[in-house]
Amino acid sequence: MPLDPMTVVPRRTAPPPVEADWPTGNKFLNGPFAPWTEESEAYDLQVDGEIPADLAGALFRVSSNPRFQPRNTDRYHWWEGDGMVCGIYLREGRAAYRTRWVETDSMRVEVEAGEAVYSGFVNGGTPGRLPEGAPRAKNVANINAGLFDDHLIVYFDGGLPHALDPETLRTLGTYDFHGGIDVLCTGHYKTDPDTGDMLFFAATGPVVTWYRADVKTAEIIDSHSFDIGVPVLMHDFAVSATYAVFFVTPAQFRLDLVARSRPGVVWDEDSLEHGVQIVLMNRRTHEVTWHELGGHWANTHFYNAYEQDGELVVDGHRIDRLGSPVDRLSTPLGSHEWFPPAMPYRWRVDLATGRATEEMISGVFGEFPKINDACTGRPHRYGYFVTTRGLADDTMSDGLARHDYILDRTTVVEGPDGLTSPSEPVFVARENARAEDDGYLLSLWWNRTTDRSELLIHDAADLRRIPLARVKLPSRVPFGFHGSWADHHTLDRAIAAHRGDG
Ligand SMILES: [Fe+2]
């Protein structure tokens, strides 16, 4: 049976807008972060402008969206919200939309209890009474979402990913790459541009494990573990043709503190004898080398890494500090103090001498760096990110930026009609693209007036304030972290594989 051009059926009745009523001044429970407590779907959404005809597939994102009032609303942190997946399906210039909770085992515990049972891992807190057999820690399934192995896989750094039906967004269960991983992997994977294989890693205490999963069989075909000595909060990495690239920084995740109801994300400069170091793992030989940069700072996310002219080049964003100072865990920090604005940086490792250097790029504060993923491991010219210039009380991001590394020029646009709080921009190449930037940037923005979200589609090569299209969503998608695009070939195959599953 041929697939319908649109994969979301019309809803019988429109749901009322449902917002949580948990009075608190906590920024992460208000404004664009505020929870949206009902699953929703809609068909043939209102579009201002025109969705490009060759933009056919789905944008999958996962929002951070607490289902129940946190046990301590004042300590709740953005990183701890439950994952709600959002699929925006585009075809023939039309858009359809669906959101659904990622139903993890730990969420089922809270649904049965009718309230939050688990406490937070960022600022600490005392959990409720866990029923017998309940998972000891919560899998909030809120970091990233993307198609692999014909499933929509949703990731969380502290537990196994979950597999979802890519059409209905129904949660099927945890996903372990056919028994290839045991406990967890992080939410940041890269796709090998030559083979399509998935390249990713797990960080458990001081041990980092690199994985490669075959795109055809989804089996793990390469892995290697090594000990970096300190429990770095290792959330993202970069890959070049030869290396997997990791940074050892003072930003650390301390499970022992979480177990004592203390803040688990800490800033510990004393734990690093030589300051920040780059750790390279050779993807073929598994040889691990260390390269000293010095200083005390951390990475947020990476654009890419590549080798050129005898150097390894790594592009990412750098933050001056991240988390609660390990010697001041009892003093709560404001959100901008806990996570100050980050800045684009370029690091280089001389592959002959091993010497590492760094330089600031752009000068525009921002986060959520992205590239055209076809450039993974190869030289890229353009980077895209959201700006975080404003230090506003209610939002994190306030514009969309494109940096040209050759001209060393950053273009920034703000949202039309006051739209703000843009999400990570996802680059989608135009059909038969002829250049690296020949494509679209897809990002979700918050409309303060309607308190709903909009999908903005910008021309990546010609960034303008007025986008090519504004797709009006029927709900607000609480401000989250990451997502990805699935083209219609990949999406249709995955949907066909799931049809009939019930
Ligand atoms: Fe991330």
Number of domains: 3
Structural class: mainly beta
Mean pLDDT equals: 93
Low-confidence stretches: 9-14
Strand count, sense and barrel status of the largest sheet are: 5 strands, antiparallel
Percent in helix: under 10%
Largest beta sheet: what is the strand line-up? 1-5-4-3-33
Spatial separation of the terminal alpha carbons: 16 Å
Radius of gyration over all CA atoms, rounded: 21 Å
- The coarse overall form would be globular
Report the count of strand segments: 33
The fraction of residues assigned to DSSP E strands is: 35-45%
Bound molecules: fe (ii) ion
Number of helices: 4
Enzyme class: oxidoreductase
Protein name: Dioxygenase
Pfam families: RPE65
EC number: 1.13.11.-
In short:
With 502 residues, this protein is mainly beta.
